[in-house]
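// run 5 | inverse folding | seed 20
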């Protein structure tokens, strides 16, 4: 957070005097009341804390560049107009320089006639501004209660770096964390957490107010599906073309990869995309050239089934480590494909591992030296075997013209976006106007070519 002097140092200072002089001047001015009560021996902790908190809150509020004081505050208590400034009020000081000098109390500008004439109209206009309608919505969810600090709305310093492990010092913020959990629970609606612009496409990220752990609780399923349905209807109402079901919002058990929502609401205009095709394309293209055999480990999902099919098609040997998955997949492949080169395996000698969720650390440690581990899941594996090359979860580097990318997508590096999220953007850019959910899947080659054409680039280096 800015201190009083800091925020002013940045914007008032530059044009008037030396920034450091500005810093000293502000510090001195704001210290006068504190010094006075100290010297007159009338100081108290409450007075100190109250005063510092008040000026800090008011200063940050006034510089937030977003009008947030509701009209009702001034209609309930009209003299407030003279006692408290607003962000739009102070913005005129920065644009006009010779008006609205007062920090916090506009009273003096009224008295000395330095009030900007457009103060009231700007205030009204700023409040009226409507939320822009998105073309593409990426629907995600919260990770842990503490993950809120890693979002754009949390700490910019944390949001700008990939999420690795929880930061110990965030524990100290537990009162805020608990407060945010209560607000999340009471508010109970999806929130806009990021806004990007891709050429002319307006892309927003919305988050379902549920934590990762809740997606694994059966009794939460209905509530989660209701929230997703509400978000879809809202996106539809705002005229969005595509809504991408991100992370666990597209669970097979939760809603059959989104099929449930289309069945419940067949009149939807917005198209639902789970992004499987691009995730498959990214994994296929990150398998080292010349590979003749791969093994699937961890839980199989829609991406894994499609990958196995595509690999068999290419003549690459596919080994499956779990017998029930093997039976299920073989049945499916036999019916669509005739012959397959798929085997059930007990060994860990394969040099390319395709891994899903639910892979244990022990299993991961069995991989031999130099094994390339490629996740097809939405969450990364444990990354415990230091003799292996780990790749990131399916993702690509975004082109430069994608605007407002100032936070990392979970564990992914800067400006890298998950394949699922990109898929939605591509559907929007190309105007494909089809659903990709349930058992439906978009053409893998077509979406891969589209991603390259629009400037997304594959990540080449193993991430370890
Ligand atoms: Zn200012």
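// decoded
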């Amino acid at each position: 957070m800015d201190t009083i002097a800091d925020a002013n140092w940045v914007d008032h200072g530059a044009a008037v005097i030396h920034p450091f002089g500005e810093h000293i001047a502000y510090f001195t001015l704001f210290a006068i009341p504190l010094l006075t009560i100290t010297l007159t021996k009338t100081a108290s902790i409450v007075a100190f804390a109250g005063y510092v908190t008040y000026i800090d809150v008011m200063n940050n509020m006034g510089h937030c560049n977003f009008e947030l004081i509701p009209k009702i505050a001034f209609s309930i208590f009209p003299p407030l107009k003279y006692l408290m400034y607003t962000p739009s009020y102070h913005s005129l000081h920065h644009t006009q320089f010779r008006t609205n000098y007062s920090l916090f109390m506009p009273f003096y500008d009224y008295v000395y006639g330095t009030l900007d004439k457009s103060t009231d109209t700007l205030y009204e206009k700023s409040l009226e501004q409507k939320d822009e309608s998105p073309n593409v919505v990426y629907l995600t969810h919260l990770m842990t209660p503490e993950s809120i600090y890693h979002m754009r709305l949390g700490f910019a310093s944390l949001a700008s770096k990939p999420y690795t492990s929880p930061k110990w010092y965030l524990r100290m913020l537990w009162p805020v964390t608990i407060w945010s959990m209560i607000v999340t629970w009471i508010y109970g609606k999806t929130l806009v957490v990021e806004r990007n612009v891709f050429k002319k496409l307006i892309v927003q990220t919305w988050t379902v107010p549920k934590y990762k752990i809740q997606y694994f609780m059966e009794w939460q399923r209905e509530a989660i599906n209701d929230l997703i349905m509400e978000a879809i209807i809202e996106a539809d109402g705002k005229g969005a073309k595509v809504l991408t079901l991100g992370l666990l919002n597209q669970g097979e058990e939760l809603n059959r990869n989104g099929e449930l929502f289309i069945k419940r609401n067949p009149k939807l205009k917005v198209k639902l995309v789970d992004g499987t095709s691009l995730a498959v394309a990214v994994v296929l293209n990150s398998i080292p050239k010349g590979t003749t055999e791969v093994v699937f480990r961890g839980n199989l999902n829609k991406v894994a089934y499609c990958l196995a099919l595509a690999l068999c098609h290419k003549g690459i040997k596919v080994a499956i480590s779990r017998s029930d998955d093997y039976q299920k997949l073989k049945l499916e492949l036999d019916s669509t494909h005739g012959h397959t080169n798929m085997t059930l395996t007990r060994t860990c000698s394969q040099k390319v591992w395709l891994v899903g969720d639910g892979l244990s650390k022990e299993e991961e440690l069995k991989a031999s030296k130099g094994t390339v581990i490629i996740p097809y899941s939405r969450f990364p594996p444990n990354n415990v075997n230091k003799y292996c090359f780990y790749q990131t979860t399916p993702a690509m580097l975004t082109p430069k013209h994608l605007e407002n990318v100032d936070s990392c997508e979970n564990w992914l590096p800067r400006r890298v976006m998950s394949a699922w999220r990109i898929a939605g953007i591509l559907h929007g850019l190309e105007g494909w106007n089809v659903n990709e959910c349930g058992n439906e899947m978009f053409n893998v080659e077509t979406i891969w070519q589209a991603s390259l054409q629009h400037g997304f680039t594959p990540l080449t280096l193993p991430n370890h």
